[in-house]
Amino acid sequence: MRRCAVALVHYPVLDGQGAVVTSAVTNLDVHDLARTARTYGMSDYFVVHPIAAQRELVERIRQHWTDGSSGRRIPDRREALTLLRVVDSLDAALGSLGGRGEAEIWVTAARELGTPLSFAGARARLKGDGKAVLVVFGTGWGLAPSVIDAADAILEPIRPTRGEYNHLSVRSACAIAMDRLFGARPA
Amino acid sequence: MRRCAVALVHYPVLDGQGAVVTSAVTNLDVHDLARTARTYGMSDYFVVHPIAAQRELVERIRQHWTDGSSGRRIPDRREALTLLRVVDSLDAALGSLGGRGEAEIWVTAARELGTPLSFAGARARLKGDGKAVLVVFGTGWGLAPSVIDAADAILEPIRPTRGEYNHLSVRSACAIAMDRLFGARPA
User: What is the ipTM of this complex?
Assistant: First the structure.
């Protein structure tokens, strides 16, 4: 099985008007995605933020839940946070995985963008040998076009099967994507 | 397809020591599960809390995102919150669905409890005609035994496929369960 990691990007992402912005870190994103990443066997969970003060905030959250009293109180959260890597860019995340030549970027989006890689196709690719895969999620209204354009693959969107509403939170979308890629298939 | 709704229970649930407690409402639970419920075609999203002040908090969150400025700014959240019903007990939620004789309770848990209903079996049951189904999630460390014992079915746990760690957040677990029950099946 190929090595797989998750990244949560805060810049460049889109706002509700389609402008490219930087979003702020959400505390529960740090915890939820770490727990999801740990459950599905990710090697790393990168929180990507260009602003030093925001990276420091994430580091403080990590310290509180690993070294501090809360880590003793709820060891499950501490265990998940051992996957957390706080970096200033996607390039830095890729550097951890061996660099651009050693890892593929698969992006996610709520809508169809270019030729998608189906989850079935993605599962097949992950089973074999090959470069590490970094699955990238965006905050705000999603990853900016520059990130999508630089990707090796665009995972198909999680389409609603009952109606048109398709606005899952990134916490939910990451959990569903991980389960579709790595979860037990129904009999 | 049978009518299906989701409930998030704050009492009776377990704490980290296995005691039966009441947990506090988490703001992102109100939003994330509403968005997940809307995406997967749920008829209702019940937030169940025995404490009036906590129910009022949830109502204030709802009002802010439906009638207030934030509702205009982010209509997708407002649309999801139209499913939200704030009730004081699971019985009250069932009452909305026609009462105990008209609806089944399916509970969820992180561990194996009794004979589980597989997700495949659950999908099959939902396709036919029949009573409404209320899928119940617990906060804290999960639903108390009294809720499990009163259930018509216990959904199989979401098992990790790579390792032993199995501590998804309730936001993630709900999203995954909904996708396994109602999401498009991979080709």
Answer: 0.95
Matching residue, tokens 């959904």: B155
The whole-number pLDDT of residue A82 equals 92
Helices (H) and strands (E) in chain A, counts: 8, 9
**Residue of A39, A79, A184 with shortest CB distance to B168:** A39
Q: By C-alpha distance, which of B127, B134, B185 is closest to B155?
A: B134
Name the residue of chain B whose CA is nearest to A179's CA.
B176
pTM, two decimal places: 0.95
pLDDT digits (tens, 9 = 90+) for B141-155: 999 999 999 999 999
Contact criterion met (CB below 8 Å) for B78 and B65: yes
Cα B55 to chain centroid distance, Å, stands at 16
Q: What is the pLDDT of residues B122-136, one digit of tens each?
A: 999 999 899 999 999
Query: H-type helices in chain B, by residue range?
Result: 27-39, 52-66, 69-73, 75-81, 90-96, 119-127, 145-149, 170-182
Q: How far is CA B74 from the centre of its chain?
A: 23
3-state DSSP call for residue A112? Answer: coil
Q: Which residue among B16, B167, B176 sits closest to A80, beta carbon to beta carbon? A: B167
Distance between CA atoms of residues B108 and B40, nearest Å: 17
List of chain A residues whose C-beta atoms are within 8 Å of the C-beta of residue B119: 186
For residue B84, what are the β-bridge partners?
A: B45
Question: How many CA atoms, within 13 angstroms, populate the side-chain half-sphere of residue A185?
Answer: 9
CA B57 to chain CA mean position, Å? 18
Q: How far apart are CA B126 and CA B56, in angstroms?
A: 33
Looking at residue B89, what is its pLDDT?
A: 97
Interface test with B, best of A26, A179, A181 (most B CBs within 10 A): A179
| A171/B32 Cα distance (integer angstroms) | 8
What Rg do the C-alpha atoms of chain A give, in angstroms?
16
Name which of A133, A122, A131 is nearest A158 in CA terms: A122
Neighbours of B81 (CB within 10 A): 22
Residue B28 pLDDT greater than 50, yes or no: yes
